[in-house]
Fold:
Amino acid sequence: MATNPYEVLGVRASASAAEIQKAYRALAKKLHPDLNPGDTASEEKFKEVTASYDLLRDPEKRKRFDDGEIDASGMERPPRHYYRDYSDAANGHSYASNAGFTDFSEDDDPFAELLRRSQRARANRRGEDLHFRLPIAFVDSITGASKRIALPDGGALDVTIPPGLVDGQTLRLKGKGAPGLGEGGPGDALIEIEVLPDPRFARDGDNIVLDLPISLREAVLGARIRVPTPTGEVEMALPKGSNTGTTLRLKGKGAPRRGGGHGDELVKLKVVLPKPPDPALEAFVETWSEADRFNPREGMPS
Amino acid sequence: MIMTRQAFLVTSGIDGQMLEFWLEQQWLIPQDGPDGPAFSDGDVARAHFILDLKRDFGVNDEGVGLVLHLVDQLHGMRRAFALLKNEMSAGRSDL
Structure:
């Protein structure tokens, strides 16, 4: 709120508390979204008026504003939902009343029939869809899992996570939402899946990428090493002379594919020198006469 | 979202005594849940509206009941109008 709160409420800077309240009530009556359900444009204006009133109704805040200590912009209320946004929503008890047109709906004409239909539709309303967010481990997103969500009303909801879900995907559990009215039937539970990052694995389409540290000895001489996959460790043959950046492929160890089968796990090697530095290795490399013949930066533009 | 009485009190910012009175007056009518009343987001928004009426607008309890009654009728009318509008744009010839 960049504007002056006195100007927003239309009062003088010397206005009394009673004058400020009177000005606020006069504006709020015209602008409050729940007293003006059809007027969607006035909501922003109402927010501004409310923020100004919040500032000026509190003598201490008002004084600090007058002294230039605080800026009006810090005084906004957190965003809120107005009742009018729910008056028609398929959730909870409907408070909307027919009393305003019962006399019309008793007639025997198409308009009355419409009104009667509106009443029946309300009596058999489908229940509300309930929205949840469920964080799952990366490994569970690949292999699938069973989870239980605690509901705010004390109940629980069992969710079967199918294998191969990606972050942000939504599961729909039919009929697990809020109960409906009359013959309306319950709504659905919509569960947005959040796949938590894994320190080891990342996903690239159907493939899983893993950075695997290897020792200098394993890199130079080759080895059989154990490699983690989402379904457990597997043994992999590391060929001689495996360099940092070399990518090895574990067939079928990736995420499930839509049409059947699995992607691969791509193992990106990273040679790691011993820590702390090993004096024996240093001594060997000192005496290794071939070392200077190979320039890894050959062909690199300088 | 459906919430328990306790969660509703926290979210709406009203106290238990106030809630009892509002329920008694039927200003709020929560659904029946497995463990007592089940409040919806719409009930929270309605509670905020009632708070605005009482606190900011200085409406007394009789006045709140009256305002809610009229607002509820207004929403019923709006819904009937929305239905009528839909039927008309769907081109129903008998209207």
Notes: Chain B is about 65% helix and 5% strand. Chain B touches chain A through 46 residues (CB under 8 Å).
